[in-house]
Amino acid sequence: MESQDQENKTRVVKIQSKDSWESYLSQATNQGYPIVTHFTASWCMPSVVMNSFFEELASTYQDVLFLTVDVDDVKEVATKYEIKAMPTFLLMKDGAQVDKLIGANPDEIKKRIEGLVQSCSGYVA
User: Fold this and answer.
1) For the chain, what percent of residues have pLDDT higher than 90?
2) CA 34 to CA 72: how far, in whole Å?
3) How far apart are the C-alpha atoms of 89 and 111, rounded to whole Å?
4) Lower CB count within 10 Å: N or C terminus of the chain?
5) Domains defined for the chain, CATH in brackets
6) Model pTM?
7) First to last CA, the chain
8) What distances in angstroms separate CA 29 from CA 33, 34, 75, 94, one per listed residue?
9) Interatomic CA distance for residues 90 and 102, integer angstroms
């Protein structure tokens, strides 16, 4: 039963609205968790391909909040952070953007997340 739970349970939170974005941002900031957000679009194949890799990262880095935002569904958030291409990965610490990576580059994303996590707690996966 445990393996079935793991298959169905995702650590990536899909943001459905501006309000849910603000709620998760506030919660993570208050608890001292860094955030990595994948800005995606269902029609963008490079973004869709990155979804499973993003899930793997979320499983690896337990002390990071992983969010996904469909730019067509939550335009206000995409506009606020000037998301112009997908996929875009936004790294945040203390509620503020600290890094942004545009494009499907798994090695670079992982490297930048490791740097973010180390800057927050000294934790190394």
Assistant:
1) 81
2) 25
3) 12
4) N
5) 13-119 (3.40.30.10)
6) 0.87
7) 27
8) 6, 7, 22, 5
9) 9
Altogether, the residues listed in the chain come to a count of 125
Question: Buried (b) or exposed (e) across 71-90, using 16+ Cβ within 10 A?
Answer: beebeebbeebebeebbbbb
d(CA 47, CA 42): 8
Q: Which helix (H) or strand (E) holds 125?
A: none
Q: What are phi and psi of 103, to 5 degrees?
A: 110, 165
Residue matched to tokens 């939550």: 74
Burial class of residue 40, CB neighbours in 10 A (0-12, 13-18, 19+): buried
The enclosing H or E element of 9 equals none
Residue 4 pLDDT > 80: no
